[in-house]
Every structure is written in C-alpha cells, then in structure tokens.
C-alpha cells in the first residue's frame, strides 16, 4: 500500500480499464496471477478499481482517492467470515476512524457507496471472497483453419452457369463410365466364352490323339457355335442398352445447353469478342449521328 500514492491512483484512473487494473496491481505490490484460475483475486482487484472510479466520480481529491482504496481493502479483510450485523458495525467503526481523512460530504458519500454495494450484496461478497472455491477448468487447444484465399472476381461466373457446367460434367462422367463398363463386359464375355469352349473340348471321351468320328466332330462344332452365339447375343443386348443410355445422356446434355442462362453484363465484360462488338456498335452509332447532321 506504500506505493498507492495520489499520483499513482491518478494514473490508474487515466488509463483504460485493462491497463488501469494492471497498474493498480503493481501499485498494490501484488504478484502476477491468472485471471481465470484465480478468480477471487481478480474480483478483489475489480472491487478496488471500482472504488477509485467511484471516488473520482464524486469529486474526491487524489489524496482521498488513495485513502478510499485503503479503506476498501481494510473493510474487505476485517469483515471476512463475519455476519452481516457484524459487518455493519465494522463499517460504522471504520467510517468513524476515517473522519479525519474525509470531509463530511465525502464521508456520507462513502457510507452510501458501501451500503448500496458491499452491504446490500454482502452474502455474495462473502461467498466469493470469504471461502475457497473449487475450480474445474478444462483447456482445449483448437486449430483454427483460415478460409482459402478467394479467387479474383474477374474469374467468377454466374451461379446458374456454374450449376449447368456441373450437371454437364456429371453427364459426361456417366457417359465415360458407360463406355468403360462396355469394354469390361466385352473382356469378361470373351473370357467366359473361352472357358466354356475349353470345358466342351475337355468333355470329349478317349485319348487326345484319337481320331473323332464325324458325328462327334459335328456335335462338338455345333456346341462351340452355340457357345459363341450365346455370348455374342448377350454382348449385343448389352451394347444396344448401353448405346441407348449414352444417347439419352447426350440428349440431356444437349437439352441443358439449350436451356443455358444468358450471362449477366458484368460477367461478360472484358471478353475479347464482346469488347470488339461494343466498340463496333459505338462506331456505327457515331456514323449515324453524323449522317443525320
């Protein structure tokens, strides 16, 4: 409290609140503390700071402002753990002890201030400043990802045009997928055909070097042709279906292109062809005006 001089409290008042509170902490010779973890000390510092604001607002001289801070700190210490009746008695005794420090007007103002703040909310002060508080604090470090840098507005496009391009791109992707499926099916059918032919040839009785009879050879050729026709039939059916699907996708893309929205004037400004058209239009307008004259 030795550092709490009139000049010191004047600086506290002249600073903004955060800087003023920090300056008051140094004047009180308090060690630095965590405002979140040590909430009691933070509230006590707020109470002392508010007493300075009160005293200055009431026109107390700077010498008396320093005494108000001293008065507040002593009152909070002496009433710790007391009943409200005892606190009122202690407040009255302290006001009497400080009669020589303040004039009558300022003493009455100080009495009203503590009756309307400290005594009125006495239980709250006792609960916060008079007993230990259990603090459960969880600290989580979160990484904040900044949004990506937006592209220049000149590279932007109308929302409807962008949506159209997305739909066309999806249809093109679906068309490519259809063609890919077709190639995969062809390969699978060829492998299945070879497997069936191999199985039919392996069912021929007798030694491999044995000469086949005419009837056996005809049956073998007939079965081989049947296998090839079945595979070809399945392949043709799938090709027809795929072709219809691709044509339908092309028709959808054509329809979308016909329904494409007209670009706004802002979006077409700066395009080479458009600029030339505008210049030509202005030139023709000027020639017509001269012809009329």
UniProtKB/TrEMBL annotation:
> Do you know which Pfam families this protein is assigned to?
CLAMP
**Segments of skewed composition (Basic residues):** 280-293
The domain of life is Eukaryota
Q: Please list where the region (Disordered) is annotated.
A: 262-293
Q: What is the protein name given in its UniProt record?
A: Chromosome 8 open reading frame 74
Task: Show the taxonomic lineage.
Answer: Eukaryota, Metazoa, Chordata, Craniata, Vertebrata
């Amino acid at each position: 409290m030795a550092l709490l001089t009139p000049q010191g409290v004047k600086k506290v008042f002249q600073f903004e609140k955060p800087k003023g509170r920090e300056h008051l902490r140094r004047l009180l010779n308090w060690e630095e503390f965590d405002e979140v973890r040590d909430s009691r000390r933070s509230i006590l510092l707020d109470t002392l700071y508010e007493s300075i604001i009160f005293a200055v607002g009431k026109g107390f001289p700077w010498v008396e402002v320093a005494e108000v801070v001293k008065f507040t700190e002593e009152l909070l210490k002496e009433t710790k753990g007391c009943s409200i009746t005892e606190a009122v008695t202690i407040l009255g005794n302290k006001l009497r002890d400080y009669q020589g420090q303040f004039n009558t007007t300022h003493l009455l103002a100080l009495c009203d201030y503590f009756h309307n703040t400290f005594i009125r909310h006495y239980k709250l002060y006792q609960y916060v400043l008079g007993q230990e508080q259990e603090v459960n604090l969880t600290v989580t470090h979160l990484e904040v990802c900044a949004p990506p840098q937006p592209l220049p507005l000149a590279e932007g496009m109308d929302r409807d045009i962008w949506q159209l391009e997305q739909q066309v791109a999806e249809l093109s992707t679906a068309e490519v997928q259809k063609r890919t499926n077709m190639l995969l099916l062809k390969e699978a059918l060829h492998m299945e055909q070879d497997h069936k032919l191999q199985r039919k040839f392996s069912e021929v009785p007798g030694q491999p070097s044995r000469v086949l009879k005419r009837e056996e050879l005809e049956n073998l050729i007939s079965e081989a042709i049947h296998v090839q026709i079945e595979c070809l039939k399945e392949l043709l059916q799938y090709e027809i279906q795929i072709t219809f699907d691709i044509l339908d996708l092309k028709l959808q893309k054509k329809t979308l292109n016909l329904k494409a929205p007209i670009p706004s004037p802002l979006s077409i400004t700066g395009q080479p062809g458009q600029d030339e058209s505008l210049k030509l239009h202005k030139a023709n307008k000027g020639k017509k005006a001269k012809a009329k004259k």
